[in-house]
Amino acid sequence: MTGAIKPFRIAISDDILSDLKSRLTRTRWPEAELVDDWSQGAPLKWIREVCAY
Hints:
Low-confidence stretches: none
Helix content: 25-40%
Number of strands: 0
Radius of gyration: 16 Å
Number of domains: 1
Order of helices and strands: HH
Mean pLDDT: 91
Structural class: mainly alpha
Strand content: under 5%
Shape: flat
């Protein structure tokens, strides 16, 4: 196995992407974790940033 990155394409319809964006916008977020590390899972702030992207 080489470390070369190979380009690829995926085909996702605009309807599917719009639905996903709508679902992410309506997400009911939990309260923030009580620790400063990943021991309780991914930090809420990080997840929200990924979803906003």
